[in-house]
Amino acid sequence: MSGGAGRLRRRVRTALPVAAAAALLATSANAATVEPGPRATAPAAAASTPSQAELKQRIAHAAAVVDTSRTETRTPTSGGTVDSTVSPMIIGGTTTTISSAPWMTQLWYVDDKGTTDTRDDTGFFCGGAVVAPTKILTAAHCVKGANWAKGGSVVTGATQLLSEDGDLHGGTATAVLRQWNHPLYNEDTIDNDIAVLTLANPVKATPIRMTTSTDTASYDPSTTGAKTAKVYGWGRTSSTSQAISETLKTATLPIKSDTTCAAAYGSWFIKGHMTCAGPPASGRDSGTTAICSGDSGGPLVVNGRIVGVVSWNVTDCVAKGAYSVFTKVSKYVGAAYPRVDDSNLNLDHKADLWVRKSSDKVGYELDSKGTTLGTRRQSSVDASGWNLVRQTDLDRDGHQDLMYRVSATGDVYWLRGLSTPGTWAAPKKVFTDWRTRTRIVTPGDVTGDYKPDLLSVDSAGVLWIYPGKGDGGFAARVRVGGGWSQYNQLLGHGDLTGDGKADVLARNKSTGDLYLYKGTGKSGTGVFAARVKVRTNWSGYNAFAAVGDITGDGRADLLARTAGGTLYLYKGTGKATSEIFATRITVGTGFQQYDIFG
To answer: What gap in Å lies between CA 43 and CA 51, rounded to an integer?
Structure first.
């Protein structure tokens, strides 16, 4: 941020773009079986997690690198001057502590170019926010083009940056396992500037929630929240120095109307995709409160939720009349949420399918290839006594778990997935004698607290929510309502409508009509909006699998099987209408041999 004395004299390659102008063959269900064991195709990061010492070395290396080439600039047309006589400080802002913003993260990246010559090394620094134990929300310009698993380190729990002696000041360094940036990110226009990093291990930091797609109040300059929006970061402290702040800082930047933002920036400002905030810069350090290089990826917070991600500003951040520009999170929560809840069996960002063969009760993993399923892999667990399986990530550690029900007792168990794909912890019983439960669904987070929940329909047709605690356990159940015995299918995992909230689908047993129950992010009777019919007479399908985003495009999808064993993929469109799915795609044949789908 512009402001705050930056006594840390690090000149790092800061990533704030203050920024520029302008099918595979169908699968046979009888494909060859691969024996249990670690996946040969799993990402290398999963096989070897860097030590704390190595991560600290990465941070120190990144901090020592002098490189500003990543930083793009928009040259202000209004000019602007620098006041070198004023000790730079955040006007109207303050130094803060990590206890006040426990979700704040330091993102350090270094690339040695694979050579021993340090002269070509590059590195940069960004901010980010913990939105789930293994998920960091940040900017796409901090992520695209970098190999975060190889050269990145994420620090949580620290007010100060790393000292020269390697002290993290109480913080913890964590490696990155996977990365995602919005597929339509444009580095020239800085449009769609949002990304999610998946950590190799869960962190203890308290997550902060993203706002919802329907949030308009947070962006209305007349509301109290918009007037008191706060930004956090360790960015540059002066327009005359590249040094970033050693200590976490915060500032109040009132959100401005789209009209004001467009008047300041013209075509640079993309309405609906961006929001701007501030008072207008004064033309010098004195009188300016603004984001600057190094604050990239950090959150703009209103009423305890992220409404913006630090994206860009003008060159040196103080040009007269300039405002700080953020990615508008309400626009992108539907794309980002599936990445927050994207655990899958082989760690490649695409939801996979777990099935059981009816003849020998052996379980198999079918990894998504985008629009087809790969060669099946035999599971290492004994599934002979099961009559139901659901795929989820109950403890939000980034590794997919299984929930299964034992036929004889009705007991429901949690099988926790471990860091090595295909391996599991000892099963843990979570419910006793659920033999009369007609439906059990693991849709993800339906209550809006970023902890995976469970839905169940009892023998009387009453739907219940079991709020997840985020550790594999559940809080006391909450009644949604009766009448759910009219459905012979209840399914869903993730966000079907693109608003960042988990939804479910239900098929009427008399008509075969398929209904969408759109999630509201609430609990109890208000957990779902009024149902919407999205398909007529789907009686021709006898099995479904809703495991999340199979194609990897950020939208939840659906698999449906005919009595003849043909499996179809219905790609999600993000629409809450009859166009909720694209035209079906044949995934393969022979799937009648499986009697349980995840």
So the answer is: 18
